[in-house]
From TrEMBL:
Protein name: Olfactory receptor
Matching CDD domains: 7tmA_OR14-like
Job of this protein: Odorant receptor.
Record GO terms (molecular function): G protein-coupled receptor activity; olfactory receptor activity
Membrane topology recorded in Swiss-Prot or TrEMBL: Multi-pass membrane protein
InterPro entries cross-referenced by the UniProt entry: GPCR_Rhodpsn, GPCR_Rhodpsn_7TM, Olfact_rcpt, Olfactory_GPCR
């Protein structure tokens, strides 16, 4: 491990020590060979400038703490407040759990790398990061699909809602969400790390990104990952189509509401939900489908932030903390007041 850290540090100072292009090229060949053989990867991150590294670490730390706090608040109040036991809040609790886990996979490692001025990540850490990242990303899309169907059933079939979405079906839906994510993670991780890495193990990203890892292969081993990605893309497209169709039916039902206030309230809830889903899916698909570059730009790094950091930060606000019942429960939690006893199941539909 110490040797690996030494090689990473050696790589960073090589450009400064060797200004002559001839010496630089020869020396870099040696450095690249050493980095290729080391037991780990080098995450390049956002910048080599120390001040920008510190700024990046501080910004990520603030976003991470805000995301962690907001999601933990939602999880706590949906557990302790008996009014928040309807299916909508049950799914929201699991979405918050997925969000805080999802952002914890990449951001703390990136903060540590920036503060320590060391982009090294071991082979084992990279495997775990790919597994949890792909698992939680797929689970997140699955839970958003389930939540859209829940809203569809509640708005379009309010009288049959208790039959369509009963507690047993809620539990099975959540089990399916976590199980599908785990299977996806296993498939992606197995396919990704079955390839032979014969190029310099330099990842131009702040985490172990699968497209960047595929670029390190010198053979056709990556075709397995392409196959898994294609299969998962089809499933993701089916999920996204289901979400869009659910909201189309919701909007058509809402438009028939005679009260302008009722329509406005329904649209103010549904439109942000659809926006977050579209935001998450579109940027994630763009990152996986766009060709990887040998010299990534700031735009490429921003794209990765848009689907790894922004959704877990926005979801608690869009799905939970804009809700009046959630706001009241949050105030009671922060002020230490007693929570309300359980009320009617249908009052949240």
């Amino acid at each position: 491990m110490n040797e690996n850290y030494f090689l990473v540090a050696f790589y960073h100072i090589s450009y400064i020590l060797f200004s002559s292009s001839c010496l630089k090229n020869n020396f870099l060949k040696i450095i690249m060979a050493n980095i290729t053989s080391m037991n780990g990867f080098l995450l390049m991150g956002f910048s080599d400038i120390r001040e920008l590294q510190i700024l990046h670490a501080l910004l990520f730390l603030v976003v991470y703490l805000l995301t962690l706090t907001s999601n933990l608040i939602i999880i706590i109040i949906t557990i302790v407040d008996q009014r928040l036991q309807a299916p909508m809040y049950y799914f929201l609790k699991h979405l918050s759990l997925l969000d805080l886990s999802f952002i914890s996979v990449t951001v703390p490692q990136s903060i540590d790398n920036s503060l320590m001025n060391d982009g090294f990540i071991s082979h084992g850490q990279c495997i775990l990061q790919v597994f949890f990242f792909s698992s939680l990303a797929c689970s997140e899309l699955a839970i958003l699909t389930v939540m859209s169907y829940d809203r569809y059933a509640a708005i379009c079939f309010p009288l049959h809602y208790e039959v369509i979405i009963n507690p047993s079906k809620c539990q099975w839906a959540v089990i399916a969400v976590w199980l599908s994510g785990s299977i996806s993670g296993i498939l992606f991780t197995t396919a990704t790390f079955s390839i032979t890495f014969c190029k310099a193990k330099i990842i131009h990203q702040f985490f172990c990104d699968i497209p960047q890892l595929l670029k390190l292969s010198c053979s056709n081993d990556y075709l397995r990952v392409i196959g898994v990605s294609t299969f998962m893309s089809v499933l993701a497209f089916i999920c996204f189509t289901s979400i869009v169709l659910s909201y189309i039916h919701i909007f058509s039902t809402v438009l028939r509401i005679p009260s302008a206030e009722g329509r406005s309230k329904a649209f103010s809830t549904s439109l942000p939900h659809l926006f977050v889903v579209s935001f998450y899916v579109s940027f994630g698909a763009f990152e996986f489908l766009k060709p990887t570059s040998d010299s990534p730009t700031v735009f490429d790094l921003l794209i990765s932030i848009f689907y790894t950091v922004i959704p877990p930060t926005l979801n608690p606000i869009i799905y939970g903390l804009r809700n009046e019942v959630m706001k009241e429960a949050c105030r009671k939690l922060l002020l230490g007041r007693q929570f309300t006893k359980k009320t009617s199941y249908l009052s949240y539909c």
